[in-house]
Every structure is written in C-alpha cells, then in structure tokens.
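Changelog excerpt

This revision adds worked examples to the README so contributors can see how folded entries look when concatenated. The first example is reproduced verbatim below.
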Amino acid sequence: MSLNSLGFAKPPADTRVVVAMSGGVDSSVVAARLKAEGYDVIGVTLQLYDHGAALAKKGACCAGQDIHDARRVAERMGFPHYVLDYENRFRESVIDEFADAYLSGATPVPCIRCNERVKFRDLLATARDLDADCMATGHYIQRKDGPHRAELHMAADPNRDQSYFLFSTTQEQLDFLRFPLGHLASKAETRALAAEYGLPVADKPDSQDICFVPNGDYASVIEKLRPGAADPGDIVDMEGNVLGRHRGVIHYTIGQRRGLGIGGLGDPLYVVRLDPDLRHVVVGPKTALATTIVPVSEVNWLGDQPFEGEIPCLVRIRSTRPPRPAILRPIDATRAEVELLDAEEGVSPGQACVFYQQGSSRVLGGGWITLRRRRPA
C-alpha cells in the first residue's frame, strides 16, 4: 500500500493526528487541511498563562481570544478540540528561566524553550496518550525522509523559516512530528488556504510578541517576577572607568548603542558585556564586539556523522542573521566550540547557535551560546 501524505501506509481515516493549535492562521490551516484530506484530527490548544491579563492583549499567541478562535476552527471543520492547562508547567519550564537568564546578563530566547520543554515534550506525550500516529504543527520548517532517518530542513520560504527556533527538536521527536506548511512558497499561500476552507482566522494578524511579554517590554515582566531586578548601577568602559549611570542591567543587551545616555564622548560606544553581580553595563568601541569563537552548550545533534572532530558547517547566531561559514569542534556530547570564519558582532550568551549542513537546507542541530571569549578578528 502506498504511503499517505503524512507518511503512513494506511488510509487517512485510520491515521490519527493531534494538531497543536495556537489559534492563529498557520496551525488552523494545518488542522483544516488534514481534516479535509480525511485524517482523524484532534485539535489541542495550550493555556499557557493567566487569561485575566491576556484577554485584552493582541499580538501574542495562546491568549483567551486565541483559544476561542481555535475552538471556532474546530467547530467549522468538525473535529474535537481540547484545551489543556499548562500554566504551571509553562511558568516553571519557560518563564522562570527567562527571568533568571536576564538577571545573569544573558539574552534568552523563550520561544525555543517553549517548543523544547512544553510543546515538543509535554504536549507530544499527550498526543501519544491519545493514541495519535503523529503530531502536526503550523511551524514553517520541513521534515524530510533521509537515507538514514527523518531529517530537519529549513522552510521553503526563507522569510518564514523557523529552524532557528526548533534546533533542539530531538530525533525521537522529529520521527513523530509533521510540519505540513514547511514546503509552501509564501505565507500568502497559507492565507489563501484559510480562505478556501472558510476559516474565521483567515485574515487574523500574525503574532508578534513573546506571549507573556506585553508590547515587548521585557524589563517590566522581569521586575514583576524578580523584585529588585532593575536596581541602577554604573556604566563603565572596558578599563572599569565610570562613564555614567544606568537604570538596571535588565534594560540592556549586547550590541546596544542607543539609549545609553553617555553621549559626547567621541566615537560611538556599544554594550559589550553585562556584569549583573557588580551591576555594571560595560561599553566599548564597535570593534570590541567582534568575535570568532563561540562556546556552546546543551548541544542537540541531528547529523548523520558522529559528533566529533572538526565539522565544517554554516551557523546562525541570531534568528535575524543569515547562516555563516564556521567550523564546529565538539568538546563532548553536549558542548562544542564554534569558530566563525568571519568575525561576528554582538554574539550574546543566552542566544542559540544553530548548525546547518553546507550546500543544503538541512539543520544539523544547535546549542546555547555561553559566556563568550574573544579572539582578535
């Protein structure tokens, strides 16, 4: 028997798929399309944080309105839909670490931790409990069958590619996951499908903010979670000379130039390091930001070759930057040093470093950037 569109040798009607529904257009289209193809679809939406604060908030996922929208899609297409309260898990696994990372001077990426610790761990386990054959999401990334096992690849549309945020997907998870939108050429195709299915979210705007950070104001969230986090301190140069005062280390990020309040000193100064223990924001010239050595930890390796020796690859050190040539040097099973062939500026602890195969769209895995060391460019 030939394989169905999800890769199983049985009719769609006998293939159960749990769809992670955020209430947005992407996951709604995935659920609607699979239902239209005859699959046994179950929609699941996660309640991740307090709706009292979320109901009036637009531009973030998993709020009260989003749960309502996901339910409306399920009703329209005629499949069951469940809401699971993951609020405590989300706080413990994502929000608390987000606050602590900022307090330590790092710049965290909570969306990756949410995928890793909530959606692709806890929700995936729930999908298995529901006897699902697989779980589908609305992420823009591709899963392809390789000669050895399932492979993770960048989305066909580089403008929508979410591979940076999904590098920690393990091989076992990848075997169970499906990403039906990854091959689409543009978001316009997704919205056209939503209109074709008559979905009430066809024209719904994309979410912009981290779901628990209203209007992108990280500092106010951290102050609420960790009182005293915004204590003021000194802005110092790289020799320790005091240049001014700041209103809390949590308000600053590596590479920041604007908003320092220390103008009139000649050449522009940038934040080159944060020292929360001393409450110092360390500034220096732009050249001080350049680095070629990036230490990474918690590595998730998806390549076919053993994780050892020197591995030429491409790496992305921020979600907004293109992959750059590098050499990956594993230290042990979960740690490595990445040498960039061309120096990068603003490499920040807490961000992800994602590995890609040269000459290919394949994601080889990635790790978390730890305290950086500079080597002259």
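The second example, added in the same revision:
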Amino acid sequence: MTENLKAFLDAKVAQYNRPEFIENDPISIPHMFSQKQDIEIMGFWAATLAWGQRVTIIKKCKELIALMDGAPFDFIINHEEPDLKKLLKFKHRTFNDVDTLYFIAFFRQHYEKFESLEDAFMPMSPGPLKGEQKDQVVEVALNYFRSYFFSLPDFPHRTKKHVSSPSQKSTCKRLNMFLRWMVRKDDNGVDFGIWNRVKPAGLICPLDLHVDRVSRKLNLINRKQTDWQTAVELTERLREFDPNDPVKYDFALFGLGIEERWGVQF
C-alpha cells in the first residue's frame, strides 16, 4: 500500500513540479526577478499575502512591486521618507499600510547588516542548522525569525498576526512555503534553491486547507486538529517516501487539492 501511494504521489509531483505551474501561482512573483535580494523580498511578501484567490494574490503583489518602482531591493535600501507616501494606499485583506511600512523598515535594517534574508532565520553562527530531529531545525529557525522580525523598536502590534511561529502552535503554512521556495533544489525550475544553510531534508510541508484535506483523505494525517504538530506529522510520513526531499510532495498534495478538487464535498 505504501509503495502504491509513493508511486501515485511521485507521479503527481512530476505532473505539477513543472515550469507551467509557475504562471498561476504566487511563486510567479519572485520569478519576475533575477537578483537574489529581490527574489527573497518578493518571495517573502508573496508568501505572506498568500491567502484568498491566487489571481488576486498575484495582482496585489504586482501592485506592490509597482509601488516600489519595479525594484523592491533598491527601493527598500535607497528610499527616502517622502517615497513611502504612495505605499499608504496598499491593502490586501487584513494586510494594510501599517504592515507594509513595517515590512520595509525590517527589510532595510536587515539588508544593511546582511547580504541575504537567510540570515534572518539563523539563530546561531554561520553553518548548517543542526537538531536532534529534522523537524526541530525549522522549528528553531521559525521561532527565531519571528522574534528577530519584531525586534525593531515600536513595531506595530497588529503586524504580528501576519508572521506566525511554531511556538504559537501555528502550521506556519506561509513561512514553510517560503522556505520551500528558497531551499528546495532540483532541475525543474519552480523552486529557487538559493539557500544552503537549511537543508531540503529538514523542511516542513506547508499545510493549507487543500493539503490538509487531501492528506487526511490519503490517511497521511491522524491528528484531529490542524496545528504545527500536524504539519510535522505529515512531513514525517512524507519522509518515508523521500527522506532527503519530503516537501516535494507539496506539489502533489496541493495539485490534487486545488486542481483536481480531491475531497471537496459537492
């Protein structure tokens, strides 16, 4: 049964882990850029704004890019106070101008010290993160990141709802998706694989409602609630199929859920 399920999911990974997948997905936003910092900034922003219809998410991200003159990293590093006024009209669902301005402030202070956003997830000296279990690696990284992200003086309390962490028992779907984009390496051209200090084997599968629904239908999840431990449980099952790259199955589970509508009650 396990071998049959692995073969089925491997086929679905091959079906959806393709360049054709990019255009209609939020990952198309960082694919608009070639500079590493632009990829990181807009990858993080696209992942953060990734709730609701994918068409709307992509549209709002492109609007944000235009407000930053088509060059996010350059705008963040070199903007002056009057340049921020045009961003006061940006809004996507509960993400508003207050959140936008704080994100810009965070990125500016970070990139003034570091070359890559990867360092924002590193709570220790340079080198691969280590943990007794693979899932602890990302858990430590995400808890550290949230603390670091809100380390600027007078951060807006309302913005905290947009950046989750395992310590809050959140599935951290958006952050895990962003890490997948930055960390996973293959020759298919979808994920970027530009980070090296978190390894693909340690990633946690992004768990949104589509992946959750399909995973339960396939009996990959037994836990009744949907929280951080549920994402860990799913990933541990996926490691049985591929211990070095378990999160590649996100393509299969998400594709089955949103494209093929598995488990949807009509």
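Reviewer comment on example two: The chain has a mean pLDDT of 92. The two ends are 28 Å apart (CA to CA).
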